[in-house]
Write a structure and sequence with these properties.
This protein is mainly alpha-helical and 178 residues long. The chain contains eight helices and five strands; from the N terminus they run E-H-E-H-H-H-E-H-E-H-H-E-H. The protein has a three-stranded parallel beta sheet with strand order 1-4-5, with helices on both faces. Strands 2-3 form a two-stranded parallel ribbon. Helix 1 packs across helix 8. It starts with a strand and ends with a helix. Bound molecules: adenosine monophosphate.
């Protein structure tokens, strides 16, 4: 699932995972759990998250790969927030081939910027301050535009209008999943 910060990845990820009986894996949550665990890697992650910068790929892969492969072994997963860049997508495809995982669809929740801002300012996460939000939206625009094109070119992009009530968004996605 690809969406800007505040785009509804978490909400839709949970709804889809419940409907399909599979696991919702959020890269942001996996990284935040490492921060809470207080490990040296967690302390490094905290700095990136606080600034709204992307965490280096190696750290993301090391933490996420075991979670994804365990979820795959249990029957599948909805991945939210990863991959976030084309290099991550290419590397993820390599790891996927090695672990015999295929990506069936990339769901893009398209939400206009003013709606994103409104939603983010309404929640109270540590990285949801006005300044960090602006930076995260800039990072998304720079890195994820190419990612969306990458999945469109591969023929697996499912783009939905993310500015609707949650249940309508879920219905749109489910109607279009292969
Ligand atoms: P999210 O929960 O998806 O909004 O992500 C929150 C923060 O976690 C981001 O601003 C990044 O610092 C980090 N993060 C989450 N997913 C990734 C990823 N795939 N690559 C790099 N950093 C990530």
């Amino acid at each position: 699932m690809v969406a800007a910060p505040g785009g509804g990845k978490g909400t839709q990820g949970e709804r889809l995972a419940a409907d399909y009986g599979i696991q919702h894996v959020s890269s942001g949550d996996v990284l935040r759990a490492e921060v809470r665990a207080g490990t040296p890697v967690g302390r490094e992650v905290a700095g990136y998250q606080k600034r709204g910068d992307l965490v280096p790929d190696q750290i993301v892969f090391d933490l996420l790969t075991p979670v994804v492969s365990a979820a795959a072994a249990r029957g599948g997963y909805i991945l939210d927030g990863f991959p976030r860049t084309v290099p991550q997508a290419v590397a993820a495809a390599d790891v996927g081939r090695r672990l015999d995982l295929t990506l069936d669809a990339a769901v893009y929740l398209n939400v206009p910027d003013p709606v994103l801002l409104q939603r983010l300012l309404a929640r109270a996460r540590a990285d949801d301050t006005a300044e960090v939000i602006k930076h995260r939206l800039d990072v998304f625009a720079e890195t994820s535009g190419p990612l969306i094109d990458y999945y469109r070119d591969r023929g697996i992009l499912v783009e939905v209008d993310g500015d609707q009530p949650p249940e309508s968004i879920t219905a749109d996605i489910e109607a279009r999943l292969p």
